[in-house]
Write a structure and sequence with these properties.
This protein is of the alpha/beta class and 320 residues long. It has helices at residues 10-29, 35-53, 58-65, 73-80, 122-127, 135-150, 168-172, 175-188, 203-210, 228-235, 242-249, 253-258, 277-295, 300-312; strands at residues 81-86, 99-106, 109-116, 155-161, 193-202, 214-218, 222-224, 264-266.
Length: 320
């Protein structure tokens, strides 16, 4: 499979191209001819990747969050959820494949899982509308959350969306109302809900399934009210760059943890979640297990109160 290098990874790409070239020469020269040199270059590449990913700015994190090889909802579902059964449709209009959900087991615990799916290649990206959810996706999410409440099952949300679909048909079918209803349902749930921002968390399209008791975020994910490109266009009329907007918006996990918009950062392997999926999945599973255990035993009223206090506290400065 072809490796997709980001702009800031170009020096690493050049070094790994040299490693590949030396490996081919080694095959011609005889086994072991350049083993020491290849191993030294590989160690250097790993060190460069570690250094690069430990010092990413907000725009570089945006690029990582959008990486085409980054794990999607279906990957997390396959790795973490046993006996998953997808439930389709909103019982009003149709089925939106940009929002997928269903029931399954997480480490033996029955759960309801909801998430955004962007797809992996051209065919699946078209099928999932590149992750841009329509109103029926949010109405399906509400239906699944109501099902979770009826059977007393915790809700897990996997969030990776740049924003809800802004097309005319989406507006005609009431996308704003659907997002509001889904956000309201999250906030009023009588069962634990944990949201994980795994890639992009954009605008109301994200918060519609992320208004949870606990909001977790992968180390190189982003979470914002609008995309950097949108902010540059609307606020600065395109006079600046998306990179400048990203740095000004405070959209990284580290910045958001500091102001308590998210509750926990899940570390990613050097090179991002796409570089070592098994390690990324293990980190997500461990964090999810911790958070669900912490919410066990709370009554519906306690869960609602905790959730309300969490969101009311955002933006408070201590001034009366």
């Amino acid at each position: 499979m072809a490796v997709h290098y980001l702009e800031f990874e170009r020096p690493i790409a050049d070094l790994e191209a040299k490693i590949e070239e030396l490996s081919k020469l080694s095959e011609t020269a005889g086994s072991g001819a350049f083993d020491a040199e290849i191993e030294a270059l590989r160690s250097r590449a790993q060190e460069m990747r570690r250094d690069a990913y430990s010092n990413l700015d907000a725009w570089q994190k945006t690029q990582v969050a959008r990486h085409p090889d980054r794990p999607r909802f279906t990957d997390y579902c396959e790795a973490l959820i046993e006996e998953f059964v997808e439930l389709k449709g909103d019982r009003v209009f149709g089925d939106d494949q940009a929002v997928i959900g269903g029931m399954g087991r997480f480490r033996g615990r029955p759960v309801v899982v909801i998430g955004n799916e962007k797809g992996h290649d051209t065919a699946t990206r078209v099928k999932h509308n590149f992750g841009y959810a329509r109103p029926e996706g949010y109405r399906k999410a509400v239906r699944l959350m109501e099902l979770a409440e009826r059977f007393n099952l915790p809700v897990i949300s996997i969030v990776d969306i740049a924003g809800a679909y802004p097309g005319i048909a989406s507006e005609e079918r009431g996308v704003a109302e659907a997002i509001a209803r889904s956000t309201e349902k999250c906030l009023l749930l009588g069962v634990p809900n944990v949201a994980i921002i795994t890639g992009e968390g954009g605008s109301g399209g994200a918060i519609a399934i992320a208004a949870a008791n606990r909001v977790l975020m992968l180390e190189h994910a982003i979470y914002s009210v609008i995309t950097p490109e949108g902010a540059n266009s609307i606020i600065w009329r395109g006079a600046r760059t998306a990179a400048e907007a990203a740095r000004a918006m405070k959209i990284s996990a580290q910045e958001l943890l500091e102001v308590k918009i998210v509750d926990r950062i899940i570390p990613e392997p050097p090179g991002g979640a796409h570089s070592d999926r098994d390690a990324a999945m293990a980190a997500v599973a461990g964090a999810l297990e911790d958070e669900l255990k912490a919410l066990e035993g709370l009554s519906p009223d306690q869960l609602r109160k905790q959730r309300a206090e969490r969101f009311y506290a955002i933006g408070r400065t201590g001034l009366q």
